[in-house]
Amino acid sequence: MNNKYILKSKHLGFRNWNFCDTDKLFALNSDKEVMEFFPHLPSLEQTKEFIKRMQNQFEKNGFCYFAVDFLETEEFIGFIGIIEQTYEADFTPCVDIGWRLDKKYWNKGYASEGAKRCLEFAFEDKKLESIKAIAPEINLKSRKVMEKIGMKYVKDFKHPALINDKKLETCVLYEINKEYFSQEKL
Known about the structure:
InterPro entries: Acyl_CoA_acyltransferase, GNAT_dom, N-acetyltransferase. The protein is α+β, with helices and mostly antiparallel strands. It has helices spanning 22-29, 44-61, 110-125, 140-148, 178-185; strands at 7-8, 12-15, 65-70, 75-85, 94-101, 130-136, 152-158, 170-177.
């Protein structure tokens, strides 16, 4: 499998999506532990729509939540990247960073490694000024990654897509700007 990677980090290759990723992403989306902080498991059709949305974002902006392969094996392990968010909130539209990895790759530093590489791409290549991150307040794993990559807590808010889900509706907003990221790299 000769993937053309848009970005690479030490262990990870970031690429655009293709439809042969559908079954692998659907399997990841069907893992209840991976999807613990989401209101439902996406259907196969929703998984296909997600891939199409990422392809469209990439075509429009040159970025998306990239499909991520573990370089050593070229195995698909999930996604990490940045996308435009336009849902109704006082901080949107914005560019948000996100990740979802197969649990066999958890607790090895890959989410942080990949997210740092995507921040570098966002600030240095795409010349973005600031990146946000959003997660349900109770998602301590994602919050830990946000903090590990230098993001700062901004506030809690009620996510409009989760308003009827008492467990998930209160979300946190984190942010990092280009200037702070550049200083951190020194």
